[in-house]
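tool=predict chain=A
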Amino acid sequence: VQLVESGGGLVQAGGSLRLSCSTSGFTFDEYVIAWFRQAPGKEREGVACITNSDHSRVYVDPVKGRFTISSNNAKNTVYLQMNVLKPEDTAVYYCAQSRACFGLEYGGMDYWGKGTLVTVPS
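tool=predict ok
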């Protein structure tokens, strides 16, 4: 199983960024993919999760209405569209794979990518 994040970078507050998570090594439709983030000095926290079989989605409150998770099953890729970015969104963003979203709990994920850094200066 491999997950590779891309699309991070430096963006001004109020701007947008789209992250991608390219996956391989498993049957995409049978799993969920979640996005987590870890800010400096803080614990890793869940952001959003998508069930690839039916595209149902889960978001945490701080990103609702600003972030959108989506998937392209033909490309085995999941995206995180991030709009109206804030300095508090600054973090390394990781994608992870599991059988279910499990309430976006860190311990519920089985495989992880290496992360991509998003920086929103204040």
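The first strand starts at residue 2 and ends at 6. The mean pLDDT is 96.
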